[in-house]
């Protein structure tokens, strides 16, 4: 038997999925030892690099994660990617095979580090088109996008393609009073850029209607409440006739849109609109290769009042002046280098690791028609398990179910077959050239945290993040 000694578990990724899985396993399996590998020098994934700076309360989950990390059975292995992430990354790299060799259980919780593309002309060629992932990462200090330098000075009109909460975050950053934002942990670079911004009119455009939209009440209400910012009325033909009979959440959402549509836009310094039933077909540039307008095709809904309504193009084209455009149509996970060889089944179409719903990862060895078997000791959690949707609370639920599966398997001794000494990080270090690595420990993170807070305090904000483009710049003084 293997479980006559403590479980050794590796977690790949330090976002909510990684931390909540670690927490669950450590509270269910006595003396379980967890090593958490994180490609970035700093922890917390999208809680630090996604969640909007003016939503500090959402980041309170970090207190829980700090508690988990305080355990002597927990080790943070920062600035260390699992699988070679390519030339843009110059932290340490641990081959997947090494991880599989030295742990009883490996949990993939590495989120979604790519974004979906529209696939329309002009998208890759023209300047002035950004993905929400780039823009959000940039204003939140993600090293990868430190040099993005989005140009917000070329005109008044911004177009955001997509109507989820991330699109609304982007709109709020463009419309909010910079003096409100500057107290948050948004980077100073972003503050400087937003101060120079000429954007006055933001279009948040979606293919479907208000009854199908993905945004939620809190985020819409926040936009409606912005000072000196007007809202252009929604197309009432798309609103259901009997709003009072809708299920509660949808009813409240429709009520906010109707009420917001009665307010006056005239005289507002800035304004925004929800432009429904428009699908982008082309980005058009000026002579300098800079975006100047976006072409849309009007869509029609099979039943505008049905949340599951089908959408189709009408052929009718419209044009929108666009000094800048943001694509906010979703994040995407990709397979880690080494998955195929290790027998891990990844669905490239949906961008998730194939699993049994409880996080047990399927083998890629199944023949067509056969039910795939779970791989012993391999698990997944969070966005890479169920796709890039859902808030921190749903990610926690999902991570708990993975933690429970690990505890069940370990306790029943059912799924940790095979020998191996499970040396954990010591074993891994024997496989890599550590002299070329600068692993960031939890102690190191605390030093970074302290330095960031001190820098922030000096300029009247909560923290000023270090967002150097190169991870190796994070070398710490002893
Ligand atoms: P992530 O948080 O992305 O964590 C994955 C981690 O894995 C990252 O730290 C990454 O660097 C690391 N990693 C990636 N590849 C490797 C590798 N090869 N080796 C080692 N480490 C690796 N939810 C809310 O509840 N409220 C909000 O206000 C909110 N706002 C959001 C705003 C935006 C813009 C976005 C994108 C999401 C927001 N969410 C919000 C959703 C929330 O962030 C997610 O539900 C949650 O972060 C998903 O957790 P995860 O652990 O699966 O992924």
Describe the structure.
- The protein has 478 residues and is an alpha/beta fold.
- The protein has helices at 16-28, 46-49, 61-69, 96-102, 132-139, 165-175, 178-181, 188-196, 217-224, 248-262, 339-342, 383-386, 392-411, 425-431, 442-458, and strands at 8-12, 33-37, 74-77, 80-82, 92-94, 105-108, 114-115, 129-131, 157-161, 201-205, 229-231, 270-275, 278-285, 291-301, 311-321, 324-327, 331-332, 346-347, 352-353, 360-362, 374-380.
- α6 runs parallel beside α9 (217-224) and α9 (217-224) packs parallel to α10.
- It is globular and about 70 Å long.
- The chain starts with 7 loop residues before the first strand and ends in a 20-residue tail after the last helix.
- Mean pLDDT is 92; it is low at 469-478.
- Bound molecules: flavin-adenine dinucleotide (FAD).
- Residues 12-18, 37-40, 45-47, 50-51, 55, 58, 81-83, 85, 109-111, 113, 136, 166, 169, 331, 336, 382-383, 390-392, 395 line the site of flavin-adenine dinucleotide.
What are the defining features of this structure?
globular, 15 helices, 21% strand, alpha/beta, 478 residues, 29% helix, single chain, binds flavin-adenine dinucleotide
Output the strand order for the largest sheet.
Answer: 3-2-1-6-21-20
What's the average pLDDT?
Answer: 92
What small molecules accompany the polymer chains?
A: flavin-adenine dinucleotide
Number of strand segments: 21
Beta-strand percentage range = 15-25%
Which structural class fits the helix and strand makeup? alpha/beta
Shape: globular
Q: Main beta sheet, described?
A: 6 strands, mixed
Number of helices: 15
**Low-pLDDT windows of residues:** 469-478
Radius of gyration, in angstroms, nearest whole number: 24 Å
**Portion in helices:** 25-40%
Q: End-to-end distance, in Å?
A: 42 Å
